Amino acid sequence: MTRSVLNHRWARALSLSAAASLALAVTAYPRGLMHDGVALDHGLLSLLMWGMSAGFVHGVGFDPDNRWLRLLLGPLVAWPLLLLGWGLFVRNYLS
Questions:
Q1: How far apart are CA 44 and CA 92, in angstroms?
Q2: For the chain, which end, N or C, has fewer CB atoms within 10 Å of the first or last residue's CB respectively?
Q3: What is the pLDDT of residue 67?
């Protein structure tokens, strides 16, 4: 049941719009990921990029055959990482 709900148009649109908007925000204003002039940790930035990639993969409708890739590039991983990315961007941008 969970898998079918997450494959609806609204879920894919949410993934695609969240990933595209975060990618645009990071590209247009990369200093939004800096806190007090210090760049984001490489590991944390990698997680953020993974979330954006997974959001794009799910958003365009690609569904990998491999169950591990389906999990790693699906919305259950993408959405928390995208929320983390937006949270970091908003927190650092507002401070």
A1: 14
A2: N
A3: 93
CA 1 to chain centre: 23
Phi, psi at 36, each rounded to 5°? 55, 40
Output the CA torsion sign for 41, 46, 47, 48. Answer: positive
Here the tokens at position 72 are 């790693």
Query: What is the mean pLDDT, run by run of 10 residues, along the chain of 95 residues?
Result: 77 97 93 82 92 97 94 96 93 81
Q: Are 46 and 81 in contact (CB under 8 A)?
A: no
Q: Where are the domains of the chain?
A: 2-94
- Confidence (pLDDT) at 3: 59
The answer to pTM > 0.85 is yes
Q: Which residues are within 8 A (CB) of 89 and not within 5 positions of it... i.e. 6 or more apart?
A: 22, 25, 26, 32, 33
